[in-house]
Amino acid sequence: MTTTKMPSKYTKEEYVKPPHGFCAGCPIPIALRWFLKVVGEKVVLLMPPGCAAPSVLFPKPSLIYQGQRIKVLMTPFGSASIFAGGVKSALIARGDTETQVVVWAGDGATFDIGLAGVSAAAERNEDIIYVCYDNEAYQNTGNQRSSATPWGVITTTNPLPTPKMEYKKDIMSIITAHRIPYAATLSIAYPDDFMRKVEKAKALNGFRFLHLLTPCVAAWLFPAGLGVEVSRLAVETKVFPLFEAEYGDIITITKEPKGLPVEEYFRVQGRYRHLTKEQIDMLQSEVDKRWNRLQYLATYSSK
User: Which of 128, 148, 206, 266 is the most exposed place for a label (fewest CB within 10 A)?
Assistant: First the structure.
């Protein structure tokens, strides 16, 4: 089992404590714990329906509420970013310019149902941090396909012999096209990179977008102790590159991957076990093509 250690300067406060309703081995509470250690208690979290919203409340609130240290608002599925803009405006009207307003939403609420609201908030450059925890399907309701679901994956709505035959939506290209101040990809397998990016987002104003891959034990079909390892393999195979984009133009790759074969990432997940060698080779070619495009953008954005 691969483990990962958080940088020591963030070890003083704990805002996420068990018991909580997340599945055993889920990366989401790890990521939320780290995120709040950087952002601190001057924060309002807005959560649409998804894995996180009920899991921080049941069996009892797992976020610290004493003295209202962490405020959490549940929103409708498609409008978390719109609610967030209203909350930020209300705080400013009260003279509070320090409290961070954060949307913590899954891929269904981001890639699909809430995309229009996300785009509207990004276009207006609302002063919020939007975190998409991406487990590549509607996992809270039983692993239904979303536009974040990769090609070839089986879900309850795409069972064999008809796995998903469409590629995953490129949410980072969509978001960076709005030329927002900051967008970045995150992984719990690389805590230094994770924390640095959250710090950078916190220090900026305007719309900031963080795309966090959160492998799902129940739906991706891997042992509960391998969440960090699966996250690491996603990065090292170039399936989920770690990079950041500033104002849509300055692209920086923040972790040079080892370039492992994608088969190593697929092998530990039951949702891919039906793929043929030809299909794996085709997906390897697609991953290489997307990586080359990212390298090109990173090279020429710095000139």
Answer: 206
